[in-house]
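Team,

Forwarding the record for the chain on the shared tracking sheet. I've put the sequence and predicted structure together so nobody has to dig through attachments.
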Amino acid sequence: MNLVKHLRVLVVDDLEDIQELLAFMLQSSFHATIETFSSGNQAIERLKKEPSFDLIVSDYQMPDGSGLDVFKFLKSQQQNTPFLFLSGNDLKYELELQRAEGWKQINKPFTEQALLSAVSAALAPETPGELSSKYVPVRLQLVERMGKLNAPLFVKINEQKMVQLTTDESDFTPEMAQKYRDKKIEHFFVREDHVEPFIHEFQKKVISEDAWASVDVNDLPEVFSMNVELMRDISEKLGWKDSALKLAEQCLQRALAIVARQPSLDKFIQRFHKIERLGYADHCVLTALTAAGILKNLELQDEDALKKLTFASIFHDATLNDIQYENKRKFLKNITKGDVNSSKDLRDVHSHAINSSELCRQWVFCPIGVEGIILDHHENGAGTGFPNGKVADQISDLAKIFIVAEDFVEFFTEFNGKVPVKDYKRLRQDQFPHQSFQKIIYSLLKDVPEDQVA
């Protein structure tokens, strides 16, 4: 993709208000320097001195030299600068443009979205479906926490177009963060060839010992969630390379620092009620905190057990892609009904406990026993779970704790703010009939107020 690091844009329009409007729209969404001119002839004189602009946006009809005059001058100089005409007429019927290449049209009157889409199309021609394999999403809050960047950020204009916002070395200020929040931008993107330096900077600014020590204790779960999200996105786009594994190991260490001092269940339920939509990373955080809470209530605060459960919380769904995770509840219902072969996604969900277990088994920093917890995390002790249909006596105590913790998070997500937590025990009696599971559920809920809602 041929995107420039800093856009130099020449804007040509005989109306000063339109010049200002175009400059404002472009600078609000691009890292750009704008030069404005009131006529085609003025623009041509500028191009004679300095032809190397990255983009030209010009009105079509103007006195003292039209936009077409500017375009023809560029072609006479063998310049292929992307060119956008502003016009209320359909220019494809203009004889002098019918066989010309390198131009696009923005219809008057135009919206900001129409302008940005046309600019991205001119700067970065791309075929549908290519973007997903080239970019890793990063949350706005994570970029804001980093502050100083060493890799350029991109924004997605639409499913086919990305546009660069910052240079290789940029300060991401609170003012910039607020500007993008106002534009409803939640994620930026880092190009594949910049992921390694971005990870290096992230490790220094967010996940290092010094950075972690400076995080307010109330913000730790959110930072943990951002760590997990970045690790997952990098591994899904680029595979489990050494950098992703190092990030995973550091993520585990920071997760342990949180769960070791996790608050009571009702406290972190209140916190997660503030999240409008619980995603993959939030699911992992809640599962880890719930498992730690169960260990505490069962008076089994063993450091090794806590580490194993935390590891399983982060990686139990590691082999599911975004589509499979987003639709996991639907797939699980189909699996319960005996349907395991109707689609590749369904087969992958049915086998993900095995696949995630095998993946973690290969990692030297994975504690022994974690693979068994992950393998069994969709068993239920009644012999109707998967992948092996185990009864309670065949499932380890730590796996049972994890099964309940993850199931409670699913319950929490499904009934967010609608069902009293105390009803969880009643609603799960049939799913987990064995006494050992009921004991864990009782310990989980014993400190939760009667009126606390999931």
